[in-house]
Amino acid sequence: METTFLMVKPDGVQRGFIGEVVSRLEERGLRMTAMKMMQLDREAAKEHYAEHEGKDFYEPLLKYITSGPVVAMAVKGNSAISLVRDMVGETDPKDAKPGTIRGDFGIDVGRNIVHAADSSESAERELDIFFNGSDYQEYKRVEESWVYE
Ligand code: IDP
Ligand code: MG
C-alpha cells in the first residue's frame, strides 16, 4: 500500500469542496490516515513548493496557497499516488477531463482546488512537512476485503 499527500487548497475550502473531495476518496475505497486544517505561512508554502521557486507563477502561487485555510490529508491505498493524481486531473483545469476534481470544478490554473503529490518521493517529502508520526491513524476500513481481491 502507498500513502499519498492531498491538500484541499484555499479555493476548494472557500467553495465548499472539502466534503466532495473526501467523499470521492472514500467512495473510491481509499482511506484517510491523517487530516489537518491549517493556514500555511509563507515559510511552509515555500517549503512545499520549493521546486517552483523562480518560475513566473511562483509568487502568485505563494499568495494563493497562503490566502486561507487548507485541509491536508494522508491518503492510503494500493497505488494511491497515481490513483489520486488521476482523480485530481491535469494541472490546468481547462485540460482536466470531466470526472476529475479539477475537470469538474475548476477553470483557471491559478485556482485548481486541490494539490496531490506526483511521486513517492514527493509524497514522502510533503507528508513530512504537514504531519508528524503521531498524526497518523492505523486502521482498516471494514469494507476493504470488498475493495481489494
Ligand atoms: P500540480 O499541482 O498539478 O502538481 P505543478 O506544475 O506542480 O502542478 O504546479 C503547482 C501549482 O502551481 C499548480 O497546482 C497551480 O496551482 C500553480 N501553477 C502551475 N502552473 C501555473 C501557471 O502557469 N500559472 C499559474 N499557476 C500555476
Ligand atoms: Mg506538482
Please explain how this structure is put together:
The structure is a single chain. The chain has 149 residues and is α+β, with helices and mostly antiparallel strands. The chain has one domain (2-133): Nucleoside diphosphate kinase-like domain (Alpha-Beta Plaits), CATH 3.30.70.141. The protein has eight helices and four strands. It has a four-stranded antiparallel beta sheet with strand order 2-3-1-4. The radius of gyration is 15 Å and the shape is globular. Bound molecules: inosine-5'-diphosphate and magnesium ion (MG). Inosine-5'-diphosphate binds at residues 52, 57, 61, 91, 109-110, 112, 115, 118.
Based on the model shown, name its key terms.
Alpha-Beta Plaits; binds magnesium ion; 149 residues; alpha+beta; globular; 4-stranded antiparallel sheet; binds inosine-5'-diphosphate
